[in-house]
Specification:
Blueprint: H1 5-10, E1 38-43, H2 51-63, E2 68-70, E3 98-104, H3 115-122, E4 126-130, E5 145-146, H4 150-154, H5 158-163, H6 165-177, H7 181-190
Parallel strand pairs: 1-2, 1-3, 3-4, 4-5
Length: 193
């Protein structure tokens, strides 16, 4: 079971399953296509142990003047809830009010996408995305902007968001219908039993 296309292509018995972190982490009570009062957010933690983390920091540094930053990097407000971070605000603070969010995956390869982008879909936010273009096989690409350069962010307006509203709603619908990776994998495993 894998989401890596190279393995699927090489082995006859390889079976595709989505990445284990593909389902939104944002609390469902914040899901929906919300009115947008802010322009561009970005979530970036302080983690720098992997090349993907360092790439995220580089892109955030390039775009810093155009974004509201969350997640702890550059001493930004930290977000999240759980056993280790219960005192921090939830991810919804960085998404619900924002028309756009700069989303940078840890790795970029076919069919790999995570909660970083599906959280945007769950809150009606258009991702400015550094990740696989194959996401367009699962979601409406007009509701996604693929990142090229920092200047791209300075030209975005609320009219750009509004022109994508049908795609925003479609991506919200699709994320609501999405199976969590564990459930998808369980269905695949049952086929072999």
């Amino acid at each position: 079971f894998t989401h890596e296309q190279e393995i699927i292509d090489e082995y006859d018995n390889a079976v595709f399953v989505p990445p284990m972190s593909n389902y939104p982490w944002t609390d469902k009570k914040y899901w929906g296509v919300h009115p947008k009062t802010k322009m561009i957010s970005c979530l970036a933690s302080r983690k720098a142990m992997c090349a993907g983390h360092r790439n995220r920091h580089r892109i955030v540094d390039e775009c810093y003047d155009h974004i509201d930053l969350f997640g702890g990097y550059r001493d930004s407000p930290r977000v999240g809830k759980g056993n280790f971070i219960t005192s921090w605000p939830g991810k919804e603070d960085a998404l619900v009010d924002y028309a756009f969010s700069l989303v940078i995956e840890n790795s970029v390869y076919d069919k790999y996408y995570t909660e970083k982008i599906t959280d945007c879909f769950a809150t009606g936010t258009v991702p400015i995305y550094v990740g696989t273009k194959k996401i367009c096989e699962d979601f409406d690409c007009n509701g996604i902007i693929f990142y090229d350069n920092p200047e791209q962010l300075s030209n975005l307006t609320i009219d750009d968001y509004n022109s994508r509203i049908d795609s925003v709603k479609e991506n919200y619908k699709r994320v609501c219908e999405m199976k969590i990776s564990d459930d998808y994998m369980f269905e695949e495993v049952k086929k072999f039993l």
